Amino acid sequence: MQRGNLRGTSLFEFDEWSAKLIADFKEHGQFAIANKLIDHLLNEDVRDALLAMNPQVLVAVPSSAKSFAKRGFVPAQVIANRLARNLKLVAASKALWLNRIASDQAGLDQEARAENLIGAMKASVALSGKRVLLVDDIVTTGSSLVEAARAASVVGAEVVGFATLAETILKIAPAEPKRV
What we know:
By secondary structure, the chain is of the alpha/beta class. The chain has a single domain, classed as Rossmann fold (3-Layer(aba) Sandwich). Helix content is 41%, strand content 23%. The strands form 2 sheets. Strands 1-2-8-7-3-4 form a 6-stranded mixed sheet, with helices on both faces. It has a two-stranded antiparallel sheet with strand order 5-6.
C-alpha cells in the first residue's frame, strides 16, 4: 500500500471487528490483543515484505501528550516492540515526539489532516544514518506517517517504509461526469 511517497503494509483492514479490538487495546490497555494479532497475522509473506525493506530500527509514531496521559502508554510503541521482537530487530524508544499540540486527527478530512501535522514532529539525532521502518496502529490518510518520515529525514534517517496494525481503505468519490 502507498500513503504519500511511503510504501508500507498493514496486517488487516480497519473495519467494525478490528475497530473493537484496537479500541480494547488502546483504550483499555489490553496489550495481549495487539501482541496476539501481530503474532498471528505476521505470516511469512508479511515478514518477508517488511524485512525486504531492510530496516535497521523500528520507530513508533508518537501519541499526543493528552492521549499518553489518558492511556499511560503509546500504542504504536507497543506494536513496534512486538514487531521488532518477531522480526529480530530493534525498536527505538522515544525517537520521535510531537513538538507542538496538533488537533485530533479523527475529525479532520484528508487535506486538514495533512495541514494539521506539518512540522509537528521532531526526531532524535540517534536516527541519523539509520534505515527506519515507521510503526503506527492505524493508517488512514497517512498524514501522521508522512510527518514522521519528514522529521526522521531532517536528522538524516532513511525512512524505508511503514507498518501498521490496520489500514482504513480510502474511499475516493467517483468523478462527476462532465456536462457537454
